[in-house]
Design goal:
heterodimer; A: 75 residues; alpha+beta; B: 316 residues; mainly alpha; Ferritin; 11 helices; 4 strands; 61% helix; globular
Chain lengths: 75, 316
């Protein structure tokens, strides 16, 4: 099964910042939504989003997981 | 290429530097972190089949829900730790599905059968307390930023597991009779097993680099003391005997039995009367794995190949 990594962002309440809270491996966007909601259930989030890691465009760094994903290194 | 030498990175992390990406790591740092994360991931993963098999002893629908909520948390924690390993170049696919049962790095305690509700609640009370003791130390001290952030969620949820275990230990012990006896029997084998979990005494510890690289803050003996400082008073307060006490003169908890000592997994019994054994004997027992090792790993791995082939459009 070819899963790819999605990064998970959430905010606890209105007015809070959207924070990176974790990641899930998933087959597609729909399963990523489900896995993220089920995995990161430690809070009653006001808002949660998932983003395919390869869709994140690093602005000022050339290292780390996001840059590696853009370069096709890792998943 | 790493911008630092081993000595430079050790000095930097001791000074509070937080490592954020694999590119900043030296070989030694990366190797030590991979070992630590593999043990963490495998421990979370293998706690799930152990608790899952025992969840059938839950005495009500509510306790079924709470037991399975704990299992769900443990699997999520494992997933997160394997995800961190993937960012270091390891393969989750291989780690979860490609290894033989004896190759997993979880502690011996999660190779044992939990055979009744009292054993499940003492396991969540003792083993999850061990987990939170180890991971709280990592959370407070680790120099690896992604792990520090991941442990916020894990710490919150492990606290719930622990509370669940301890509340039920209190309830069963207070009921007296068979309920109390079941807790005592579970404690009799699980207390020394958790003590052993923390590993070699400091005087014998082989150099792992985990403290030098600031991947943890406390030594094995210090962590054992932290665990006993919560567990011993809890058991004493509910009338459950444990083979340890607080020594006022030494200002620490001391064990009342030879450590380490022989264990019979079939009888779930420690042989205190036979005296101390060597740590080589303990390592041989751990390496041989416990009675449920293959069953638990098989329960995790069994459906992977078939479903993968279905999705690829091939006959299973």
């Amino acid at each position: 099964m070819h899963e790819v990594v999605y990064d998970v962002f959430a905010r606890k309440a209105r007015g809070d910042s959207l924070c990176h809270i974790g990641y899930v491996d998933a087959l597609d966007d729909e399963t990523a939504r489900v896995y993220a909601w089920r995995t990161y259930d430690e809070e009653n989030w006001f808002e949660m989003c998932v983003v395919r890691r390869t869709a994140i465009i690093p602005v000022n760094r050339d290292d780390g997981p996001f840059a590696r994903a853009r370069k096709g290194v890792g998943r | 290429m790493t911008p630092f030498s081993e000595d430079e990175l050790k000095a930097k992390v001791q000074d509070g530097y937080i490592v954020e990406s694999p590119e900043e790591m030296t070989e030694g740092y990366k190797k030590a972190l991979i070992v630590q994360l593999t043990v963490q991931a495998d421990t979370e993963l293998m706690s799930a089949p152990s608790y899952w098999r025992a969840a059938r002893y839950a005495p009500s629908t509510n306790t079924q829900v709470s037991a399975h909520a704990i299992i769900q948390d443990e699997l999520a924690h494992a997933n997160i730790a394997y995800r961190l390993l993937e960012d270091l170049g390891e393969s989750k696919e291989h780690l979860v599905y490609g290894r033989q049962p004896h190759e997993f790095k979880h502690p011996y305690g999660f190779d044992q059968p939990l055979d009744n509700w009292a054993e499940l609640v003492v396991a969540t009370g003792f083993f999850d307390r061990a987990g939170i003791t180890l991971l709280t130390d990592v959370h407070e001290n680790t120099s690896y930023g992604p792990l520090k952030r991941a442990l916020v969620k894990i710490g919150m949820e492990e606290t719930f597991h622990l509370r669940h275990g301890e509340v039920w230990m209190k309830r069963l012990a207070a009921a007296g009779g068979d309920a109390r006896d079941m807790v005592q029997r579970a404690v009799d084998w699980m207390f020394p097993m958790t003590i052993e979990w923390f590993g070699l005494p400091d005087g014998m510890k082989r150099h792992s680099g985990q403290l030098d690289y600031r991947l943890k803050g406390l030594t094995n003996d210090q962590l054992r003391q932290v665990w006993m400082a919560s567990t011993v008073p809890l058991c004493e307060s509910i009338g459950i005997d444990v083979p340890a006490h607080y020594d006022d003169g030494r200002g620490e908890f001391v064990l009342d039995y030879p450590f380490p000592c022989r264990y019979d997994a079939t009888e779930k019994r420690w042989f205190f009367g036979e005296g101390e054994i060597s740590w080589d004997d303990v390592f041989a027992r751990w390496k041989a794995r416990g009675p449920m090792n293959e069953v638990y790993v098989e329960s995790i791995q069994r459906s992977r190949g078939d479903v993968g082939r279905w999705l690829a459009g091939q006959a299973a």
